[in-house]
Amino acid sequence: MYPINLTPEQVTDELLDISRKAVDGMKTLMGLQESDIEIGSTPKHAVMQNDHVVLYRYEPVVDAKDIHPVPLLISYALVNRPYMVDLQDNRSLVRNLLEQGIDVYLIDWGYPKRNDAYITLEDYILDYLGSCVDYVREAHDLDAVNLLGICQGGAFSLCYASLFPEKLQNLITMVTPVDFHVEDGLLNRWMACGKNFSAIDPDVMVDALGNVPGDFMNFGFLMLKPFELNFQKYIGMLDIIDDMRKSANFMRMEKWIFDSPDQAGRAWQQFIHDFYVGNKMIHGEVVLDGKTVDLGNIKMPVLNIYAEKDHLVPPSSTVELKKYVGTKDYTEAAFPVGHIGMYVSGKVQSQLPPTIVDWLKERS
Amino acid sequence: MFPQADMMLEMQQRMMDYWSNMMQMATGQAAQNGMTSLMGQQMATSQAMAVRVIDMAMNTWQQMADSVNNGESWEEALQKQMTNVREQVTEAMTEGIQLSENTTELWQSYMEQWQLFSTPWMQAWSQSLDIAPKVAQGDTKAFIESSNLYFQAYQDTLGKILEAPGLGLNRELDEKVRKSFAAWIDMQQTSYEYQIIMADAWVKSFERLMQELITMTENGQEIGSVREFLNRWSETADEMFKDIFRSDDFVVAQGKYVNSMMALRLRQREVSETILQYSDMPTRSEINEAHRRIYMLNKEMKQLRKELAALRDDKPKSAAKKKTTTRSRKKTKSKDK
Question: Per-residue pLDDT tens for B57-110?
């Protein structure tokens, strides 16, 4: 008759136990400093700066003779800090790539300020990304380098690869949205992609705010799974709160999640209009500085990596890439995790780097 | 059914206060800083929500069970309880937002909010007129006194501006304030519509949870712990909210709400800028224009630098000169440079 087999006393005991864990957890938290939850700690140094964008090169961890001759440039999304790829010692795609002999560069897009509100997608893709590619080419005396684009950074990479295919030897996209009008994506729905009614107006937002606040973006992401991300996660934290290391790992993730840069207004506006609402990339209608992006120009080998349980970038969006690229050497690799799990899942950490490295080395 | 709920919540709050005091003593700074403080707050908030949900679910279930014992079916009992829950949730979420039909009341309500956000530049400006001659003569103290007026002006309200006659500003300013008021009305309305949908989502998620409990009863299943109950509730609620968030109604309501907030911000900016102009202070529009020009100049400089470098090195202007082989590792030698 009563499916909840709990007496008030049992509930009280369990909640008291939860509270006891919380109190013990406070002691753990009091023992943690901000320096204990640093992100992106793999040694690197800045090699180039273009406005607020900085290009970093990671320090090699293998002998010079064992370093793969073609470096890999990582282009992350704008909406979060790129150091998710180097979250902590045992959760670092960068570190794993370095250990397998890859020379790794990372673009840090920085924190746009109010005076950056006029930066456009052309600036990001042709100037910032382009200058980083050119720097790496010049530094290594190469015609072409390898490029890894992640999420929105993958969309940027696809555009760049379409316009400058001769500068890329191999292209890797990871959890990258390609078709922005798939029905699965909640973000797509919120921008009323493909619909005949209006939703959030990016133009009035940018007029009013200049840059789109990182907090606004965060709020949107949290609302995709409001109870899991705002409630259940913190109840679940109690199971690990007495472990200093696990607590630090948890809080490192929290730090990354909420360290969201503002989005440069014009670039954000363009991205929403052209990619989300217009879905122009797959239709060959994205125009950057007078040049039309045609995914069919991508003739270099492509490795398209996606997460099967991705709620931010549905797999149905990512796998569409196969239809549009012009390369005959197209490979897909799927992992049974979510969007963030691609970087933090222990299982993926052991499988993803060799997937990338083996694929690159076969195409040297 | 769960009378200890309020006691538990009070205990939680006391623990948080105690912990915050300990943190302040230990670190010598406000406990609001740092991730640890935020994490503690999040945990406490989550636990408080958990206690409330358990209390609500158990009370609802008990009332449903009583109805079933009195001969009603589960479906009838559930529907009756959901009606009560919906009324309470909707009232809680829309309290204070529902528009009054009384324009005067609306105007007063709007001005109360406006006074919180706007700066009483006019009072400072009218006072600064007395000081201006001294400032013009280089009287440093007068300059400081004039500057301090504007700092003090932040503490006052904008209400006096609308009451002050004879400033010669009313016509233009009044129109902008009226448009700002209209934008605020629109925002209140869209907020109300948005909250109605959110309240509906809450109620439906709770209703789905109750449905699941009914199904479990019929199948002889049980929930054996608070954590299991909370996990089930969280998963159920996420699923229901996802369904609601995907609906055209929600997308439209969310869009209208966000757009109306942005429109209000723009109208408020118009009012602020009018006042700032009278105070000879730079406005957001002017700063935006300066930023835009700096951006354009920076872009032009970069292009010129690129062309200059190309001329200096006697390179072709195009940056993407194709090499003889596209797959070769090394660049071709100097003859192509």
Answer: 777 777 877 887 788 887 787 777 777 777 766 666 655 555 445 556 666 666
CA atoms of B18 and B15, how far apart (whole Å): 5
- Look up the ipTM and state it: 0.88
Quick check: A79 and A217 in contact, CB under 8 A?
A: yes
How many pairs of residues across A and B have Cβ atoms under 8 Å apart? 208
Nearest CA in chain A to B63: A2
- The H or E element spanning position A287 is strand A287-288
Helix, strand, coil: what percent of chain B each, to 5? 80, 0, 20
Q: Which helix (H) or strand (E) holds A16?
A: helix A8-30
Cα separation, A47 vs A59, whole angstroms = 12
Interatomic CA distance for residues A314 and A342, integer angstroms: 13
Catalytic residue among A132, A151, A159, A193: A151
From CA A261, how far away is CA A114, in angstroms rounded?
12
- What the block records as the tokens of A303 is 């490795």
- The token duo for B109 is 């309500």
Nearest 5°: the CA angle B284, B289, B292 is 125
Distance of CA A131 to the CA centre of its chain: 20
CA distances to A12, B12, B13, B48 from B6, rounded to whole Å, are 12, 10, 11, 10
Q: Of A123, A197, A251, which is closest to B248 when you measure between CB atoms?
A: A197
CA distances from residue B81 to B50, B88, B207, B208 in whole angstroms, order as listed = 20, 11, 9, 12
Question: What is the C-alpha separation between A322 and B151, in angstroms, rounded?
Answer: 61
SS3 B332: coil
B159–A contact, CB cutoff 8 A: no
pTM for the full predicted model: 0.78
- Give the SS3 label for residue A331: strand
